[in-house]
Design a protein that fits this description.
Distance between the termini: 50 Å
Structural class: mainly alpha
Oligomer: single chain
Shape: elongated
Radius of gyration: 20 Å
GO molecular function, one term: transcription cis-regulatory region binding
Number of strands: 0
Order of helices and strands: HHHHHHHHHH
CATH superfamily of the largest domain: Tetracycline Repressor, domain 2
Protein name: TetR family transcriptional regulator
Helix content: 55-70%
CATH architecture of the largest domain: Orthogonal Bundle
Pfam families: TetR_C_33, TetR_N
Strand content: under 5%
Keywords: DNA-binding, Transcription, Transcription regulation
Length: about 210
């Protein structure tokens, strides 16, 4: 597939005054679609995005400084959707260990269902001390939901009090590791309905109480 993947698009009529925010949203949406189609950010150019939206390349730069800034916004939007899933994953679940399990499995399922964007987003390396918009959104979504559950488990005495961040990283690493491996190696015997992933997450969640 060429760099300008899926260049179909038509000339866009002049936008009414005040529609810049809407155009930015369309640019993010178009870039997301192109990334999913191409499977890699290297094959998606600013020119391809402009053609998909129906604007000129300079119009893209009015909203995003460069391709890196655009990709950062796209990945941040992906994690906002992730946040919605995590937010409701444990609705109606009173048992805190089961809540942690539900959050972990919601994480894995969302990642698998959005495999291309998940892989692209986590392949982006953050320089030390230079968090991106994507990092900020991620740390205010998945990390926060895991943190709330861990803090509640510690408060009720189900797991030893300790470093919340370290415990969250154990849960997060397990969910991320499972998701990444299942995306990279879907042919392995994961079992029906992610059976192996669930048993692994359950073991880690219950194991927190034995530390």
């Amino acid at each position: 597939m060429s760099e300008d993947v899926a260049v179909r698009g038509t000339a866009r009529p002049r936008s009414p005054r005040g529609s810049g925010e809407q155009l930015a949203e369309e640019i993010i949406s178009a870039t997301t679609d192109l990334l999913i189609e191409a499977g890699t950010e290297e094959k998606v150019s600013i020119r391809a995005v402009a053609r998909r939206v129906g604007v000129t390349s300079p119009s893209i730069y009015l909203h995003f400084e460069d391709k890196e800034a655009l990709l950062d916004a796209v990945c941040a939007r992906f994690f906002e959707q992730f946040d919605e899933v995590m937010m409701h994953a444990a609705d109606g679940i009173d048992d805190l260990f089961e809540r942690a399990l539900a959050q972990g499995m919601a994480y894995v399922r969302f990642a698998i269902d959005s495999a291309v964007m998940y892989r692209i987003t986590f392949a982006r390396i953050t320089p030390p001390g230079k968090p991106t918009l994507t990092d900020e959104v991620l740390l205010s979504s998945a990390f926060v939901h895991f943190s709330d559950t861990v803090e509640a488990l510690m408060a009720e005495g189900s797991i030893p009090r300790g470093d919340v961040v370290q415990t969250v990283l154990q849960l997060w690493s397990t969910a991320h590791g499972l998701a990444s491996l299942m995306i990279a190696k879907p042919g392995l015997p994961w079992g029906d309905d992610l059976e192996l992933a669930e048993s692994t997450m359950r073991a880690v969640c219950r194991g927190l109480g034995n530390q």
